[in-house]
User: Fold these one by one.
Assistant:
Number 1:
Amino acid sequence: DIVMTQTPLSLSVTPGQPASISCKSSQSLLHSDGKTYLYWYLQKPGQSPQLLIYEVSNRFSGVPDRFSGSGSGTDFTLKISRVEAEDVGVYYCMQSIQPPMYTFGQGTKLEIK
Amino acid sequence: EVQLVESGGGLVKPGGSLRLSCAASGFTFSSYSMNWVRQAPGKGLEWVSSISSSSSYIYYADSVKGRFTISRDNAKNSLYLQMNSLRAEDTAVYYCARRRGPDYWGQGTLVTVSS
């Protein structure tokens, strides 16, 4: 099974400052079809998870451009260029290269200072 | 607008059964694979099961294999999860979610397994 490891597990950021979350997978997420099946989700307090980034670096519909994803192979990063109060919640990375066993990272809790 | 609405959660005793439903609208349900993902209280996300658009491919997490059954009815735009032999560790909010890298999620339904 592919293990997804996120760091840090918690983050406290001043509004307007940048934030970065790392996600490392135990195996490469590059598929033979050329796609890399790495996703980022945000779960705001009391809400369902919402997709932010798909296939490493593509912003989902309606996601602000202050969110960006990068990386390749086994190392990935989610960056928020300027954190806003509405960005609080838990961020998860997820791999789906290895169906049927999709796995999530442990989650990174973002708080506002 | 894509909508996924789960129902069927509740309190059940260990060893009991429950059937969850997910009503889909706002998209062509029969064209998408679907998933169940759960979240135990205060914990992270755990993938439970997936089913392809035509039900040809079905997958389960090892933790539920042999106890849970995923199914769908494309004519009714509905996804189901039959849960048998429930254990305390199955207590969680269960979400249905659309497609392989889930893009839309329902609001979840809480399943509590307790005597």
Note: The beta strands of chain B are 3-7, 10-12, 18-25, 34-39, 45-51, 58-60, 68-73, 78-83, 92-98, 109-113.
Number 2:
Amino acid sequence: DIVMTQSPDSLAVSLGERATINCKSSQSVLYSSNNKNYLAWYQQKPGQPPKLLIYWASTRESGVPDRFSGSGSGTDFTLTISSLQAEDVAVYYCQQYYSTPVFTFGPGTKVDIK
Amino acid sequence: QVTLRESGPALVKPTQTLTLTCTFSGFSLSTSGMCVSWIRQPPGKALEWLARIDWDDDKYYSTSLKTRLTISKDTSKNQVVLTMTNMDPVDTATYYCARIRAAAVTDYWGQGTLVTVSS
């Protein structure tokens, strides 16, 4: 199975400032035939299920604010919140869906307000 | 509007078999590319993928749990059922079902159901 790691484990950012979360896969999740990275990002608030934010590493799901953006390719990816809002406090997970059907998740990164 | 809802017992005893049902609406599991997965999350811990069933009835299981899991679907009832045998306290978790579109992107999740394993 592909192993996903995330850094940092947690971070605290001031309101309005940028938050950056990193995700690394143990092998490439770039599918050469279509040049797509099989990588998604989720946001999970306490007591709620995960919510899809980004797929194909950089495509924002419908309705997701544009302060959320994804980047990266191959094995290294980043989720950026450009201007942190109070409602963005949550745990963020990356997930690979390259290695079907076992779509492994990263361990999560907790984002708090400084 | 796509919705999924998990149902099942909140408490099971060690060694018992857990049966969970995912009832969904807003899509058909007979549509090409549609899949439903089960994912669990122990309290305060990360997400763990368990099993998946596809529109064509292909079934897949977590390598570490495959001897204990069975997934099935009833397309006419819009339901997916997961059974897990020989439950142990370490299986205490919130169990989610989720839709996968285009056999790739997990886009909609149920609210989850907390299952506690205790005697």
Note: The interface with chain A takes residues 35, 37, 46-49, 52, 60, 62-63, 96, 98, 100, 103-112 of chain B (CB under 8 Å).
